[in-house]
Amino acid sequence: MTIVALGINHKTASVDLRERVAFSPEQLDRALQQLTMQDEFAESVIVSTCNRTEIYCSLESGTPEQVLQWLAQFHQLDSKELAENVYSFVHSQAIYHLMKVACGLDSLVLGEPQILGQIKQAYASAKKNGGVGVLFERLFQKTFSVAKQVRTETNIGASAVSVAYAAVNLAKHIYGKLDNTRVLLIGAGETIELVAKHIHQHSPQSMTVANRTIDRARNLADEFAAGVISLAQLPEQLPQADIVISSTASTLPIIGKGVIEQALKKRKNKPMLLIDIAVPRDIESQVAELDNAYLYSVDDLQAIVSENMATREQAAKEAEQIITARVSEFDNWLKSLDSVGLIRDYRNDVTQTKEQLLERAMAQLASGKEPEKIMVELANKLTNRLMHAPTKAIKDAAEKGEVGQLAQMQKMLGINQE
Q: For this structure, is 57 an active site residue?
């Protein structure tokens, strides 16, 4: 049995190619069903996200090239073009890659947690379509366990590594809980959208989006049940804001020292946090001179991000050590499944049991006990010893409702229930 991982990601392929290789939900079911019908594909799981498409297979026979040909054929792509942009791993390297991906070590943002959920969904889809057997059940459960261990034992996800996330973390650090704060977001681009997503998770008292184009602001605001104002309305809105986060494309500052000074007077000098993540700046640097106005620039946040990234990179090294150890454990389990070794070990166990009981029976015969009673005792004890492990496994599977495992044991033990 050969375990293969083949895929493309943000490091190896353009957005255009990644889009063409991605699987829609409808395609995913069809693809998994198609793979299960092919004799050489014993088990298969397909992971498809905006940044990567990966196929994990256990092959009865075949090579990564066979997986590549199937992928190209399914999406009607040129296999040569695809071959120039894919990567593939076999056996231990494939297992290591899967665990590394699940831990967020291969993501665009190092340590991001979303990929683990996506792999769990991919596993569930494959299981539903018959793509997961004993081998991949063990592999993916082991992978989920490793990802949890890495999250628990390292700082891989503990620090903000995007400016938007750092801005929200800074606000949370200063205010503690954000549920009593009123937030004003200035701009409606990608950065402010990301800020809005992060800050919405903390349930602020209110959130308002200010933008030059009202319609664009409304598109963003509707997603988070936020209010909408124009830039011209900023002087009226600023006194209401506890937290101001700004990121526009303006070439000149849109908030000056004077307007913040007036806002603070109306707030009766209640503190105001201002985070300017625009380049060039949206907020005049002189605002920082005002009492109760706490201004942070993109450079301040970038310093936090750089420090946090260094922390995550160190955590990634620790995570890789954990993964290496777990891959070794899985490899050892795989080796234990080798049929020759398995048969040898089973035969040795049975022979040892036979010899122990036979030695006892011979001693009883030598002591003059009745041969008939000794033979019955030998037969009973041998039967009980040999039945102990399978009986326990059957009871455990029945208690857990593992119907598939019960069916496998029925076949393995040669039990015909027709």
A: no
